[in-house]
Design goal:
With 270 residues, the protein is of the alpha/beta class. It has eleven helices and nine strands. Strand 1 and strand 2 form a beta hairpin. Helix 3 runs parallel beside helix 4, helix 3 packs antiparallel against helix 10 and helix 5 packs across helix 6. The mean pLDDT is 89.
């Protein structure tokens, strides 16, 4: 009998291993730039979930960016500001990035290390079980760089932690530490950093031995809450893309790169 071909070869920005029976671990793999999500990683993640859905050897996925923060590549901002076609392509990619993940049938456990920002934060928070360390800093930094909190934020944060906390962290772009994330409901578990991967494997193994149809249909029903909030995602994502063309994002990105406070005095608010 011919040896079964590994379906996960050829990926440039993702690594795969199997830490337990029925468990596939997906690791963001751009350590040279702190796992920043570039177009290659975006496309690989967008198309990955349909492939795993057809993989009979995988019942549960662990998603992590081991030992490095995960965020968006801020250099993309300059391209968006100049190119309408790039804006529309990015809008579609982020839309599919979120919806393909929400519609993925199998449970996902995320293990978030160090810092989670932007695109890397999206899947981490949208996972079915979210495991963090006390040192983790969650930063939805959209307003800091002068754009609407798009991606996943308006869709899920109010469901996880309530409107009061969601508004504070999304409006201010303040860091949310891992232990506080667990306390307010953004994370499921908070464990010491050196126990993070073990805890993720433990939870994934618990899920992998349960009746798969019952687990997947329960996830489907629960994710209807997220689907019902789809208009919030669509509005925030559209306004985020519009914001990348404006002066506030230009100053926001420049001030972030130059490690200074942004100056907004010359801009007219809506």
């Amino acid at each position: 009998m011919a040896e079964k071909k590994d379906p996960y070869t050829g990926y440039k920005a993702l690594k795969f291993d199997r830490p337990a029976d029925g468990v596939l671990r997906v690791t963001l793999n751009r350590p040279e730039v702190f796992n920043a999500v570039n177009p290659t990683m975006h496309v690989e993640l967008i198309n990955l979930w349909a492939k795993i859905d057809k993989d009979d050897d995988t019942s549960v996925v662990i998603l992590c960016g081991r030992k490095a923060p995960a965020g968006a590549d801020i250099n993309v901002a300059g391209v968006l500001r100049k190119d309408f076609n790039e804006i529309m392509r990015t809008w579609r990619e982020i839309h599919d990035h979120v919806y393909n993940f929400i519609n993925f049938s199998k449970p996902v456990v995320s293990a978030m290390h160090n810092v989670a920002v932007g695109a890397g934060l999206t899947l981490g928070v949208l996972a079915d079980v979210v495991i963090v360390s006390p040192e983790l800093r969650i930063i939805d930094g959209h307003t800091r760089v002068g754009v609407t909190a798009g991606d996943h934020s308006a869709m899920i944060w109010p469901l996880l932690c309530g409107m009061a906390k969601a508004k504070y962290y999304l409006l201010t772009s303040k860091p949310l530490m891992g232990d506080e994330a667990e306390r307010i409901g953004v994370a499921t578990f908070c464990v010491p950093l050196d126990e993070l991967q073990d805890k993720a494997v433990e939870v994934a193994t618990e899920l992998a031995i349960l009746p798969p149809t019952a687990v997947r249909t329960t996830k489907y029903c629960l994710n209807n809450w997220l689907r019902s909030f789809g208009p919030h995602l669509d509005a925030s994502l559209g306004l985020e893309m519009l914001g990348w063309t404006g002066p506030e994002s230009e100053e926001g990105v420049a001030s972030l790169k130059e490690k200074r406070d942004g100056s907004w005095d010359t801009y007219s608010p809506m």
